[in-house]
Structures are given as structure tokens and as C-alpha cells.
Amino acid sequence: MPSPLAALASLPGSALDRVRDAFDSPRAGGVAVAMVVVVTIGTSVGILALGAVFDATVDRQITVDNPDRPPEPTCESFGDDSDSVFAEECDEPERIEVDAGEELRDAATGYLHYGLLGVPLWWALFAVALHVGARVAGGSGSVGDSFVIAGWAIGVELLRLAAGLAAIWYALSNAAISGETFEALSNEIVAAVTSATGALLVASAVGIGVQWIVVVGGLEAEHDLDRGAAAGVATVFAVVALLIAAV
Q1: Three-state SS across the chain?
Q2: 35-46 residue pLDDT tens
Q3: How far, in Å, CA of 35 to CA of 120, rounded?
Q4: Which of 36, 42, 65, 161 has the fewest Cβ atoms nearer than 10 Å?
Q5: How far apart are CA 177 and CA 100, in angstroms?
Q6: Residue 35 has what pLDDT?
Q7: What whole-number distance in Å separates Cα of residue 3 and Cα of residue 19?
Q8: Residue 7 confidence (pLDDT) above 50
Q9: Which of 18, 13, 41, 24 is closest to 154 using CA atoms?
Q10: CA geometry: angle 15, 19, 23, nearest 5 deg
Q11: Separation CA 93–CA 24 (nearest Å)
Q12: Cβ(119)–Cβ(150) under 8 Å?
């Protein structure tokens, strides 16, 4: 009977075997495309969720320039002219109070296109880079095969996204946000999120570890690489991903 330590040591190899066999399924390509679609939608929802986190955790009223009031030189020139289209607008106050949480939520929503366009672009770049790495290692698969591997691997990003949102929510919920300007608020928010860097890095490391297993198994199945060569290619990408996460 194998010892518990030996059984534990065999887990990575067993996981790699299962992933490699899964890539042999005729549905592997469809799963990859579906995964990219799900991650694209999930990332877009995550951006909206980030805005909701700001709205829920940043409870401050701050004074800002009134965006509905024309610039002061315009009001000086035309504000007293009752026939001017600027007359009524220049009667608006120069400064108004706004809810900082709502403003940050609206600002986050403005980045929604990054989720819709960024994920497919990242998929393409990852697939091309992965294909180059596989070719250098002697792989025989097609570019399409590399897209399948990248599609499977990108699914793990949802776990990293969820962990990131949870960490940001926790950090902001326990931070003393008291800034009276957007600049001061931004500095306090950045400081709070920075305090969660350790947890975010751990979550990234776990996610990258799962992606490493997916890439190794995929390279074995799709590019006919032996496990050592596949692990070498996957390790290069994992190290780069960890460095990016640590920045």
C-alpha cells in the first residue's frame, strides 16, 4: 500500500494525465470557445461588480467642479446676456457635491469594453505565444491546437477575478476612507488595495499553477510533446505570469 506521501506526490502526474486525456475529446475545441465566451462575460460582469464594490464601500460626499456649468471665461463674456444660450447654464453653481462611491462606480463602468474586447485579444496573444513556444520545443500541432489550449487555460482567470474582487471589497470595507477630493480618495483606495497585495498574489499563484497543469496536458495532447518539454514551455509562461502579477 503506497504511503500518504507517495500518494500526494503522484497527484500532479495524475492531474496531468487527466487533463491530457480530456484534450483528446472531440469536444475540446468547443469547450475552449465556450470558455472564452464565459470568461469574457464574467470579466465584464466583474468590472460592473468592481463598480458596485466602490459604491458600497466608499461613503463620501466630495465637492467637484460642476460639469454642467460652462468655463468661467465663457460665463464672463456671455453669462449676463439673456439672449445667450449660456445664460441659464452660467446660473448653475461652480461647485457641487457628489457621491464619491457613485462616481467611482460610473467610472468603472466606463471600462466595460476592456472585458468585452480584452479577453478575446488576450486569448489570441496567449495562443500565438504558446504556439511559438511549442514549436521551439519541437511540437507538431497547429495554431488552432494552440488556441484550444489557451482557451482552456484562460478559464482559470474567473477564479482570479473572483478572488481579486473579494480582496478589494474586504480591503475597502476595513479602510478609513476620509478624503475630501478625488485625488485624496484615490490615494487612500490605492493604499487600501495595496494592503491586499499578498492575498492577491497567493490567488494568482494558485491560478497560475492550475493553468500550468492545463498547458502541460494540452501541449502533450495537442503538440505531441513529451512531459518534460511541455513542462519547460509551461514553466516559462508561468514565471512570466507570476512576474506580471507581482508588479
Answers
A1: CCCHHHHHHCHHHHHHHHHHHHHCCCCHHHHHHHHHHHHHHHHHHHHHHHHHHHHHHCCCEEEEECCCCCCHHHHHHHCCCCCCCCHHHHCCCCEEEEEHHHHHHHHHHCCHHHHHHHHHHHHHHHHHHHHHHHHHCCCCCCHHHHHHHHHHHHCCHHHHHHHHHHHHHHHHHCCCCCCCCHHHHHHHHHHHHHCCHHHHHHHHHHHHHHHHHHHHHHHHHHCCCCHHHHHHHHHHHHHHHHHHHHC
A2: 999 999 999 999
A3: 11
A4: 65
A5: 11
A6: 95
A7: 25
A8: no
A9: 41
A10: 170
A11: 67
A12: no
Cell of 242: 507570476
pLDDT value of position 93: 81
Q: Is the pLDDT of residue 83 over 70?
A: no
How far is CA 57 from each of CA 99, 108, 192, 196, 226, rounded to the nearest angstrom? 12, 14, 12, 15, 50
Q: Give Cα 76 to chain centroid, integer Å.
A: 46
Percent of the chain at pLDDT exceeding 70: 91
**Paired residues of 62 in beta bridges:** 98
